Amino acid sequence: MLLVLLGATAGQAVVWYGGQFYSLFFLTQTLKVDGTTANLLIAAALALATPFFVIFGWLSDKIGRKKIILAGCLLAALTYFPIFKGLTHFANPAVEEARQSAPATVVADPATCSFQFDPIGKAKFTNSCDVAAAALAKAGVPYAIKPAAAGSLAQVSIGGTQVPAYEAAGLGKDEAKAKSDAFGKQLKGALTAAGYPEKADPARINKPMTLLLLWILVIYVTMVYGPIAAYLVELFPTRIRYTSMSLPYHIGNGWFGGFLPTISFALVAATGNMYYGLWYPIGIALMTFVIGLFFLRETKDVDITK
């Protein structure tokens, strides 16, 4: 079951979450495409790609389940970076332009910068570095992190403008809100002056190309998902089949896939690279490809009555 988890369902899960959910998150939260447009584009990509669930299921009857699932994982791992960079170029080119003309930098004591992993939304990141990094990440602004003297207050540098962050530890609710509002207002002003868009300009969204890239992402989903049910059924004998296939499927999708948004955001906040969160699904997909290739068998001709 462990091999099936690591060599099949974990990769299937991150490719599924990456293609259907993280792509929507990236459009709306990172590229600031309005929700209606983003949801319509995702819905259109899903509608156009849905027949391929059946096509790849049928094809797996001909050439094998494992080949198609692992091909989907490998293709996703090899192309996620160019596809998501393409989404930036076609959905919100102003982000690219501002990044080149006025790069953002968080200048902070490295010891005060946390890895902002918060799976249940309860953690409090109160150091000034964390405040600055989270604000930029949530604004969809890529940034570099530059070390500063120990104990110094973090600040955001945008072009030639400096915006000091604040320490939130020990502040009362009202004082924390006042400082957050003041920092947010000052940061927003600096970003606007530097050309960073608050929202994606609808007139500059290349909808056909954005839809094409989203469709490719969903095609990967259909490759890993179309054959997976038959593959799991055929991997295990009848007497232990339900338990044996259920455990790796639900752990793979619930844990490996379910943590994708949280881990990816933490990676982005830790590095300032808006694409760095893709390393999580890429790493899991590559792991699944290698383990599945060498340790799992093909099953398309297995007699499931035994």
Automatic annotation (TrEMBL):
<feature type="domain" description="Major facilitator superfamily (MFS) profile">
    <location>
        <begin position="1"/>
        <end position="300"/>
    </location>
</feature>
<protein>
    <submittedName>
        <fullName>Conserved hypothetical membrane protein</fullName>
    </submittedName>
</protein>
<feature type="transmembrane region" description="Helical">
    <location>
        <begin position="254"/>
        <end position="272"/>
    </location>
</feature>
<feature type="transmembrane region" description="Helical">
    <location>
        <begin position="212"/>
        <end position="233"/>
    </location>
</feature>
<keyword id="KW-0472">Membrane</keyword>
<keyword id="KW-0812">Transmembrane</keyword>
<dbReference type="Pfam" id="PF00083">
    <property type="entry name" value="Sugar_tr"/>
</dbReference>
<dbReference type="InterPro" id="IPR020846">
    <property type="entry name" value="MFS_dom"/>
</dbReference>
<dbReference type="GO" id="GO:0005886">
    <property type="term" value="C:plasma membrane"/>
</dbReference>
<keyword id="KW-1003">Cell membrane</keyword>
<dbReference type="GO" id="GO:0022857">
    <property type="term" value="F:transmembrane transporter activity"/>
</dbReference>
<keyword id="KW-0813">Transport</keyword>
<dbReference type="InterPro" id="IPR036259">
    <property type="entry name" value="MFS_trans_sf"/>
</dbReference>
<feature type="transmembrane region" description="Helical">
    <location>
        <begin position="37"/>
        <end position="59"/>
    </location>
</feature>
<dbReference type="InterPro" id="IPR005828">
    <property type="entry name" value="MFS_sugar_transport-like"/>
</dbReference>
<feature type="transmembrane region" description="Helical">
    <location>
        <begin position="68"/>
        <end position="84"/>
    </location>
</feature>
<feature type="transmembrane region" description="Helical">
    <location>
        <begin position="278"/>
        <end position="296"/>
    </location>
</feature>
<keyword id="KW-1133">Transmembrane helix</keyword>
